[in-house]
């Protein structure tokens, strides 16, 4: 199984994880931004009028309102990326990574506008009378490339499990176990039943749930964020300044943080930004295609708000919470993850002077790797006696204790190390180092007015954010199945989707995540190609929209 996962990871390294992939996404978004004359800015205020239903007609065809389509799409993107993804970006790239996340979202607003407009324009009515749309429909109905549509739809089904299903319940069950000591199987069982109840009702019940759930979870999460920001208000201006001061210079090494290059911060920020709002992936257009409307451009305008809310607002507030609390550059006691750990040969490395920090940073970046340890690591009563240095989470680890297992007794004996990593995964390394993802955000939330209770807000946020993502992605897979095998196949898909949700609460789903990473790239690349080929169609559709608006609402001031 590990060999298969390594093989799939190699494939992913050439597509979704390749250096050119973010530039392809940004490039298409930047092209449309210029080609359509910055619609994400010109149409921004007008989009709020559309969401409120000001220009709706009584007989508009569709299953959901504009607001319900927006919240359904938002529930698919507002997830663990907003809590864990931002923390990972700051951990890896420093404050500058936040700037690039915001820039990516600003460009992504235009990409969303285009892909949603075209998907809404070429949607169809399914056999059961519901609306069916998404990139696969414009690929089939306009580009006459059904084979490409089939590839996209299959990738969407795989992504529904690897993006919206398994990683989400895995994060929920882990968070609830660490905070409330609830066993993962119990979390999986209860939430699987709730998930089944919601998705069996189809898009109307999904939309009804998400339109209430998304605002509620945003309020809870913002309450926690602002409690930290205002409790550390003196750090707010310096935190904002650090975002811009580190843009064009190497991010300074502070505390346990070893610094980050300009390019590294850019790559991390863009990558996390794209992961957060999914602009260009083609998933959100499936939700927006269900919206009632006689003009596809109107729904495209609604989609402009999505990356703005998801990344520019929520991710920025998360980032300021992390920066103002100061926890991102502090070492904390934690159980070391093998994937984040490296054991160096020798004990001469330090992070308390510039030369040591430079040497460690260059090792982590691959510029000048330091020799790693191979052989038997000597441990006595939990303390390492061999001449080594332990790196964990891109920081120099301190106060290390080696235990026989997680939560077990201190080890006395030998630990086999191969290429700088322990061979036996059951051996536990515990100590002080930088941390990232959900644990980092949880600690940041304890630095506010709620104190230690702040971590519970993160657990609740993970529960609401991740569960809402699972709901939305079930609909994306539902519509892809409808495209591939008709409406009758949806009930079987839903059964498997709920079963997978339960299994992932207690099982290792690493290989599914790797498959999903490939599937996301297989969704994104055809979608980017398709919207680029339809650029003239997009431009003429916008022109027709404003022409119709002037005829129907002659007194309305339009931003065309």
From TrEMBL:
Keyword terms, alphabetized: Cell membrane, Membrane, Symport, Transmembrane, Transmembrane helix, Transport
A cellular component annotation (GO) from this entry: plasma membrane
Localization annotation: Cell membrane
Protein name: Alanine glycine permease
Main location: membrane
Family affiliation: Belongs to the alanine or glycine:cation symporter (AGCS) (TC 2.A.25) family.
Molecular function (Gene Ontology), one example: amino acid:sodium symporter activity
Source organism (scientific name): Roseivirga seohaensis subsp. aquiponti
Membrane topology, as annotated: Multi-pass membrane protein
Domain of life: Bacteria
Transmembrane intervals: 20-38, 147-164, 184-203, 215-237, 243-266, 456-476, 496-529
């Amino acid at each position: 199984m590990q060999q298969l996962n390594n093989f799939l990871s190699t494939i992913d390294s050439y597509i979704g994880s390749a250096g050119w992939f973010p530039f392809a996404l940004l490039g298409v978004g930047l092209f449309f931004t210029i080609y359509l004359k910055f619609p994400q800015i010109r149409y921004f205020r007008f989009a709020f009028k559309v969401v409120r239903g000001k220009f709706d007609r009584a007989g508009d065809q569709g299953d959901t309102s504009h607001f319900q389509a927006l919240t359904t799409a938002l529930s698919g993107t507002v997830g663990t990326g907003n809590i864990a993804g931002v923390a990972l970006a700051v951990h890896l790239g420093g404050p500058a990574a936040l700037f690039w996340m915001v820039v990516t979202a600003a460009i992504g607003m235009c990409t969303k506008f285009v892909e949603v407009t075209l998907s809404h324009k070429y949607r169809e009515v399914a056999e059961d009378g519901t609306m069916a749309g998404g990139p696969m429909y414009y690929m089939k109905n306009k580009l006459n490339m059904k084979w490409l549509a089939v590839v996209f739809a299959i990738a969407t089904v795989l992504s529904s499990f690897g993006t919206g299903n398994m990683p989400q319940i895995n994060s929920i069950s882990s968070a609830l176990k660490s905070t409330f000591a609830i066993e993962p199987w119990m979390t999986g069982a209860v939430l699987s039943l709730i998930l089944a109840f919601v998705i069996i009702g189809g898009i109307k019940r999904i939309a009804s749930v998400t339109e209430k759930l998304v605002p509620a979870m945003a309020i809870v999460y913002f309450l926690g964020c602002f409690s930290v920001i205002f409790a550390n208000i003196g750090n707010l201006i310096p935190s904002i300044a650090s975002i811009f001061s580190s843009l064009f210079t190497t991010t300074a090494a502070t505390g346990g943080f070893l610094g980050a290059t300009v390019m590294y911060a850019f790559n991390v920020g863009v990558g996390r930004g794209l992961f957060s709002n999914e602009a260009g992936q083609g998933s959100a257009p499936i939700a927006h295609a269900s919206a009632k409307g006689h003009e596809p451009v109107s729904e495209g305008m609604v989609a402009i708000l999505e990356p703005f809310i998801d990344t520019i607002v929520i991710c920025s507030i998360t980032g300021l919470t992390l920066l103002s609390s100061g926890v991102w550059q502090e070492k904390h006691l934690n159980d070391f993850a093998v994937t984040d750990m490296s054991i160096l040969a020798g004990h001469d490395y330090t992070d308390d002077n510039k030369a040591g920090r430079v040497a460690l940073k260059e090792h982590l970046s691959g510029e000048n790797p330091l020799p790693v340890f191979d052989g038997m690591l000597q441990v006595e009563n939990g303390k390492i006696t061999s001449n080594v240095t332990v790196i964990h989470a891109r920081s120099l680890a301190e106060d290390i204790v080696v235990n026989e297992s997680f939560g077990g007794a201190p080890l006395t004996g030998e630990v086999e190390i191969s290429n700088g990593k322990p061979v036996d995964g059951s051996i536990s390394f515990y100590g002080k180092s930088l941390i990232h993802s959900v644990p980092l955000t949880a600690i940041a939330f304890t630095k506010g007015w709620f104190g230690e209770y702040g971590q519970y807000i993160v657990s609740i946020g993970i529960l609401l954010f991740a569960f809402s993502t699972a709901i939305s992605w079930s609909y994306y897979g539902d519509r892809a199945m409808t495209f591939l095998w008709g409406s009758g196949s949806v009930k079987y898909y839903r059964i498997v989707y709920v079963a997978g949700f339960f299994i992932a609460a207690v099982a290792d789903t690493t290989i599914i995540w790797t498959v999903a990473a490939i599937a996301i790239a297989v969704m994104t690349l055809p979608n980017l190609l398709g919207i680029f080929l339809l650029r003239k169609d997009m431009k003429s559709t916008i022109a027709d929209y404003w022409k119709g608006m002037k005829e129907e609402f002659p007194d309305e001031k339009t931003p065309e």
